[in-house]
Structures are given as C-alpha cells and as structure tokens.
Design brief:
The protein is of the alpha/beta class. It has 13 helices and 13 strands. The strands form 3 sheets. A 7-stranded mixed beta sheet has the order 2-8-7-6-5-3-4, sandwiched between helices. A 4-stranded antiparallel beta sheet has the order 9-10-13-12, covered by helices on one side. It binds pyridoxal-5'-phosphate. The site of pyridoxal-5'-phosphate has 13 residues, from helix 5.
C-alpha cells in the first residue's frame, strides 16, 4: 500500500514529528480571531502587478533600503525573508550541521525554534526561564561550547514582557567565541526602546529577527528580516531560496516602510497599547483571575483555574484566543491578542456572558 511506502521512505524523525499547531491550523471557525497576535487594522495599498513575467531580485533593493533605514543599519546587515520564521529556519540550516549541532531555547517561548531545529535534525536544549521569566545565566553558562545558536525572544511570546537588557548582553558575551545569539524582536514596535538592533555593530555573534506580521498588520504578506553582521548575512544568503521575496510582497512591504507607512504603524501601535490597558484593567477585575502577566506587546497572558472552561465557552461564542497550558510552567494560561476595538468589545462581552453562566450554575447548586 502507498501509505506504508511513504512511511518507509520518510526520514524516521519526521515520521514521529508533530507539526506546529499554528492558530490557522489547529483552531478553525469563529468570527473574532484573537489567537495569532495579528494587528486589528488593515492596510490600504495600491500596487502594480506589472512585470510578473520576471523573477524578482534576490533582495529587492527598495525593500532592503527602506528596512535598513528604519532599523538604522546598512543594507549589508539586512536579509529579507519569507516571514521571521524563514529567518529562524535559515539560521539553523546555515549554522547547525544536521544530526550534530544543537540549539538552545529558553521556554516558555515561541514554538518555531524547536520545530525548525527538528526539521533539520538538530537537537534542542531547553534552558527554562526563571520563575521571574528571566534568563537563567548559570544554566546558560553550562551550554557554552555545546550549541551553535541560542534563541532569546524579547519581548517573549507568549508571556509578553521583555528580557532584561543586561542579561541578554551577558549571554551575547558568554557565547562570543562559540555561538550566535538570536534576539527575536517580532514585537519590538510595541517597545522600541528595548531593541538590540544597533548592537549588531558591536557584537559579531548577535542576530536580531524582525517581522511585518505584527505591528505592521501584514501577517498575510509573509515578510520578515534578519539583522546581523555582513558576514552572517553572506552565509545565510547561500542557503536561503533564490527568490525568497515575491514582487507583490516587495512592493507592498516597501510601501509599508516609507515614512508614511511607518507613521500609520506608529499610530496603530498607540491604539493597540490603549486597548491593551483596557483589556488589562478588565481582566484585573475578574474574581477568577490568578495572575495577569505584564505585557510590552499586543497580547496579554493570564492564568485562571477556569482556563479550560473559559477557553471552550469563548470558542463556542466564536471568540478564538490561544490556550498556552501545554507550555512549560504555563498550565491554565490563556493568551488574548489585542485586535481592533470591536473585537476587544466582543471578547469582553463573551467573558461577561461566561461570568453569568458560572454565576447561574453556582446559584443553581
Ligand atoms: C509571530 C512570530 C514570529 C513569526 O513571524 P512571521 O514573520 O509571521 O513568520 C516569530 N517570532 C515570534 C516570537 C512571533 O511571535
């Protein structure tokens, strides 16, 4: 039978692998999507579809110029990728020898580092964050010499807060002769003062990941950037696909990175931060709340014993948020993305309906 042929042919480690359960794969339906940290707004864009008979440039120059200017780096320090996810994958494929080299991650954190490592047959060593959700420097010190790439997510997804600046610098210095330190800044537009991008000029082993999927409201575009020394970008350019950025993507992304586009993004971030504090205040009033995590992003993580019930109630109401309970130390934690005003109102209404439903069931008992 063909199925057993495929089972025989496939890499044995892929046969056992569990695919990443993205918000668009694991959770379907609903009419209020607050499960993927997307922006609530939309972009008004007008692009030309001429010249689609031609291959695009390997790195479209207007796009790279605009991003370099925004990040205050040179164009040689920028690699445009198919989302930040492709940056993660290309880093691992460029620097880890399959079946031999390891990466280090600090859970609870973003899931794609481990998935990309697995796809390349690289091992992932876990160095969990401390109970304050900060880096465990003594434990990381023990990994010096045992890994090629260390991934730090700051602000961290799904917990929401930034990692201490001096700790990240300690880690970059710890690994300065033995590994790359990758700071994933997917949410940095919500707290730009914490960026490490400028330190690329100081530390040759530092890499910063960026995306247009969150603050720029362009998740559907699939466009991200790796920021690093010219030497790192040169090596990654050997491994990445020959035409990673399609021409329509380059045109839309370039427009989003003009000064007008950046002004729209900055306004959207302000709106999102105001809505976030509304959600935080609302959550803080809930009697069932155990803990609400500090956020420097467009999402809020919270802990409640009623997580499973609340999550299914919201799903029934069409409001999709993300259950983070399977992550290390995040049992009973739910993450809600800060969508637009109407979506946040729908979330609040659905939570209030949930409260009524539990009050009714307690008074009936
Ligand atoms: C969303 C996200 C990404 C992926 O971004 P894309 O550009 O959409 O691939 C990477 N890292 C973190 C922490 C994210 O939350």
């Amino acid at each position: 039978m063909s199925e057993s042929l495929i089972n025989k042919l496939v890499r044995s480690d892929v046969l056992d692998m569990i695919a990443y359960q993205s918000a668009r794969r694991g959770q379907t339906g609903g009419n209020c999507w607050l499960n993927a940290n997307e922006a609530g707004g939309n972009n008004q864009l007008d692009i030309s579809l001429d010249n689609l008979n031609r291959y695009p440039d390997f790195q479209p120059s207007e796009l790279v110029n605009n991003y370099a200017k925004y990040a205050k780096l040179t164009t040689e320090q920028v690699l445009a990728t198919r989302g930040a996810d492709e940056g993660i994958e290309v880093l691992i494929r460029t620097f880890c020898t399959s079946g031999q080299d390891n990466i280090v991650i600090c859970p609870p954190t973003y899931g794609m580092y481990a998935i990309s490592a697995k796809g390349h047959n690289s091992q992932t060593t876990l160095v969990p964050l401390t109970s304050e959700l900060q880096l465990d420097i003594p434990a990381l010190t023990k990994q010096v010499g045992n890994c090629k790439v260390v991934f730090i997510c700051s602000p961290n997804n799904p917990t929401g807060d930034v990692v201490k600046r001096e700790d990240i610098i300690s880690v970059i210095e710890l690994f300065k002769d033995s590994a790359l330190v990758v700071v994933d800044e997917a949410y940095i537009e919500f707290c730009p003062q914490f960026s490490f991008a400028e330190l690329i000029n100081t530390y040759p082993n530092l890499v910063v990941l960026r995306t247009l999927s969150k603050a720029f409201a362009l998740a559907g575009l699939r466009c991200g950037f790796t920021l690093a020394s010219k030497d790192i970008i040169t090596m990654m350019s050997k491994i990445i696909a020959p035409y990673p950025i399609s021409q329509p993507v380059a045109a839309i992304a370039s427009a989003a990175l003009t000064s007008e586009g950046l002004a729209v993004m900055t306004d959207r971030v302000k709106t999102s931060i105001a809505l976030r504090s509304q959600v935080e205040q609302f959550l803080d009033k809930q009697t069932w709340l155990n803990k609400r995590f500090k956020s420097s992003t467009n999402y809020v993580l919270f802990n409640t014993e009623l997580a499973p019930q609340l999550f299914s109630f919201l799903t029934e109401q069409g409001v999709l948020i993300r259950n983070q309970s399977s992550q290390l130390t995040l049992e009973n934690c739910l993450r809600v993305s800060i969508g637009n005003e109407q979506e946040i109102q729908q979330f609040i209404n659905a939570v209030q309906a949930f409260n009524q439903s539990i009050n009714q069931s307690t008074s009936n008992n």
